[in-house]
């Protein structure tokens, strides 16, 4: 009789231990086959030139609202112009935006850059918009073509390609400037073309915080 009680007690104890073992926290189960876990996308920087045109041909250059004036020795001319250190060297700048605006006496094209340095530059009228590297001619709106070369730029990382300002930018705020086309980065230089109704005097200067390259096109007297 006593032996039967001891056996029953031992069996009950083993059952209790088994029950306690089953109450431990199991790791959460992963998604079953055929299902996927929800994905949260990280926010991205908003580019400065993403407004589509009415006919969805491409982005429209955002307004250039700067009213900054250059130094007194920066004057208008139709002759080729470049910064004193041209052609300069490589840098940390990434071209990220194109903006166009109309002001009293001139229209302005601003090229935005991400980075801490100041771009070098050369701006001049050319007979045709020929893309560096590939040698192909760009079909650009306008009767006059102003080429803009910026130096001190770098190639983007894989995660930065969506930030690049590249391709055609239509203009809605200006009469003289018809189109801006950015061909992109080639051998440390960023090439762009400004299509104009006619050749006019221009001036070029840079601004900082953030880095910008500014091209002003002088308007004739009406």
List the strand order in the largest sheet: 4-7-8-11-10-9
Shape: globular
**Biggest beta sheet summary:** 6 strands, antiparallel
Number of strands: 13
Tally the helices: what do you get?
A: 1
Number of domains: 1
Q: Residue-averaged pLDDT, rounded?
A: 78
Q: From the structure provided, what is the oligomeric state, counting identical versus distinct chains?
A: single chain
Strand content: 25-35%
- Radius of gyration over all CA atoms, rounded: 31 Å
Order of helices and strands: HEEEEEEEEEEEEE
Pick out the low-confidence regions: 1-56
The CATH architecture category equals Sandwich
The helix content, as a percent range, equals under 10%
Q: Which class do the helix and strand fractions yield?
A: mainly beta
Task: Predict the CATH topology.
Answer: Immunoglobulin-like
Description:
- The protein is mostly beta strands and about 220 residues long.
- It has one domain: Immunoglobulin-like, CATH 2.60.40.
- It contains one helix and 13 strands.
- The protein has one helix at about 1-20; strands at about 50, 60, 60-65, 80, 95-105, 105-115, 120-125, 145-150, 165-170, 175-185, 190-195, 200-205, 210-220.
- It starts with a helix and ends with a strand.
- This is AMIN-like domain-containing protein.
- InterPro entries: AMIN-like.
- Keywords: Signal.
- Pfam families: AMIN-like.
Throw out a few tags for this protein:
6-stranded antiparallel sheet; about 220 residues; signal; AMIN-like; globular; single chain; 1 helix; mainly beta; 5-stranded mixed sheet; Immunoglobulin-like; AMIN-like domain-containing protein
């Amino acid at each position: 009789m006593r032996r039967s009680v001891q056996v029953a007690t031992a069996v009950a104890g083993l059952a209790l231990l088994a029950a306690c073992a089953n109450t431990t926290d199991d790791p959460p189960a992963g998604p079953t086959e055929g299902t996927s876990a929800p994905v949260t996308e990280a926010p991205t920087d908003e580019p400065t030139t993403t407004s589509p045109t009415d006919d969805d041909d491409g982005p429209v250059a955002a307004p250039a609202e700067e009213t900054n004036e250059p130094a007194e020795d920066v004057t208008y001319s139709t002759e080729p112009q470049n910064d004193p250190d041209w052609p300069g060297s490589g840098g940390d700048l990434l071209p990220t935006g194109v903006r166009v605006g109309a002001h009293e006496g001139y229209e302005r094209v601003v090229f935005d850059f991400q980075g801490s340095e100041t771009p070098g530059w050369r701006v001049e009228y050319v007979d045709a918009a020929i893309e560096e590297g590939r040698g192909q001619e760009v079909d650009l709106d306008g009767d006059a073509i102003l080429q803009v070369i910026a130096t001190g730029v770098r190639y983007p990382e894989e995660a930065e390609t969506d930030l690049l300002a590249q391709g055609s930018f239509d203009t809605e705020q200006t009469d003289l400037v018809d189109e801006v086309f950015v061909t992109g980065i080639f051998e440390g230089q960023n090439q762009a073309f400004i299509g104009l109704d006619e050749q006019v005097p221009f001036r070029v200067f840079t601004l900082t915080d953030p880095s910008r390259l500014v091209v002003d096109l002088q308007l004739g007297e009406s």
